[in-house]
Write a structure and sequence with these properties.
Low-confidence stretches: 1-6
Radius of gyration: 18 Å
Structural class: mainly alpha
Number of strands: 0
Strand content: under 5%
Helix content: over 70%
Mean pLDDT: 86
Order of helices and strands: HHHHHHH
Largest sheet: none
Length: about 220
């Protein structure tokens, strides 16, 4: 069943999100890269709102959230905050809003059409966005506070932080990077819990219903 807006074509959103993930893992640690990441995050949000057929209220809420983030970033900049922290925080906020928009669209899609391939695409996009959101939160924390974020004696560059985020989300835990402080470890545990609960509940339920719908 085709709906309003972009017709719930979450494959396109997944492609944009996967591209953003690849770029964040490979990009150099430069201001230009930080700006590009924020722009692509905005593109992903726009694509999510279009394909989800976001209602006016959702669009207003997303706009308000981004406006608040920009105001807070401006205040932090005036107070002398590190420019990298501002970019990382703003990107994390945009990614988090995108998760909310996709989630709302998926609920409507399942109610209208049941579980299909587009539902799987949307759920996978959310999973990638969770990893990215935590990666940029880690970047904001690493640049905002004194002291090394990682126990290995470094804050790392942003590509390393995103890499650490995804190894934490998937509970792979290679051990080459580990959080040094109690808040950093708490953030890592929260991400691990979200990642595992999401896989064993949301993804497994969607795949199970997709198999039944295909019979």
């Amino acid at each position: 069943m085709t709906t309003r807006g972009g017709g719930h074509r979450y494959g396109a959103v997944l492609i944009v999100t996967f591209s953003m993930t690849t770029f964040a893992l490979a990009a150099p640690d430069t201001p230009a890269a930080r700006g590009a990441e924020l722009i692509v995050a905005g593109v992903a949000l726009a694509a999510a709102m279009l394909t989800s057929g976001a209602r006016p209220g959702v669009r207003r809420a997303a706009g308000i959230a981004i406006a608040v983030a920009l105001v807070l970033a401006a205040i932090a900049a005036i107070a002398g905050a590190h420019p990298g922290m501002l970019a990382f925080s703003a990107t994390a906020v945009v990614n988090a809003v995108t998760i909310g928009v996709i989630l709302g669209g998926l609920v409507r899609l399942v109610q209208e059409s049941g579980v299909g391939v587009q539902t799987v695409f949307g759920a996978l996009a959310i999973y990638l966005l969770v990893g990215l959101t935590f990666g940029f939160l880690i970047g904001a924390c690493a640049t905002a506070f004194d002291g090394n974020y990682f126990a290995q004696g470094t804050d790392g560059v942003q590509s390393q932080r995103v890499y650490f985020s995804f190894t934490t989300l998937t509970t792979t835990g290679f051990g080459d990077l580990t959080a040094r402080t109690a808040p950093g470890r708490a953030l890592a545990v929260l991400e691990m819990l979200i990642g595992q609960l999401y896989l064993v509940t949301v993804i497994s339920m969607i795949v199970g219903n997709l198999r039944r719908a295909a019979r």
